[in-house]
């Protein structure tokens, strides 16, 4: 029989209703691969940051049965530097081998519990300074949409909870299922860049050109040796203007974005074809199979052969 992974979502006082519903919506669209339960620290209703409370069906005891625990985000006014006793007691029920995920400000909860000490993590860009003051022992990366640090995953604000949940589906069951889930939920299966692109910026001058067309063109020519000058020329901008505007819009440099897109394409080909590693490298624009191996390992920590064994078996 196919294993059904249990996801338990922990709702705390001050929870954002939108973020609380993300795990159920995403994992619930994954063809029965997951079971999603929602609990509170005492089994009682929790106050949301809206004008209503939320009744949950379970108490903290279900945390001990979870394969994955998702802590939903809370309004900043509910953030405390120390962990309340009832929250600490609830988190203590989580199995040592369970995966733990935070959405947005819930990174404060994991950090206060000591789970993020010495680890890389992220949270919403608006509370970055507060987080760093409270938890200097955490390696905070404010520029990304989510961080996968093995057993612990943290995500940035609000909709990045969708990104991290889709990433988990992709990691567990491959890109085909993750893409299908994204289509059912009418969201992009993979968002470009990081949260830097969402930080408040001065309003651009009216009529300012976008790099979107150049990005679309690049995705259609990933198998070619694309240089920054090629992208800038396609966008009709100088190199300096293009590089600046690209980072403003995407949150990454053009070079880093290209590598990211090539790795995404390579993962799809490893899952869906029997092409050799060298052939796939050529298809996605890496000069050699060794280069593909290097970039794939840097992105997801495995070799092309190991990735293919896992996800072709899933397919």
UniProtKB/TrEMBL annotation:
It holds the Pfam family HTH_18. PROSITE patterns: HTH_ARAC_FAMILY_2. This is Helix-turn-helix domain-containing protein. Residues 212-310 form the HTH araC/xylS-type domain. The keyword Transmembrane helix does not apply. Keywords: Transcription, Transcription regulation. It comes from the Bacteria. It comes from Streptomyces gibsoniae. InterPro entries: Class_I_gatase-like (IPR029062), DJ-1/PfpI (IPR002818), Homeodomain-like_sf (IPR009057), HTH_AraC (IPR018060), INH-QAR (IPR052158).
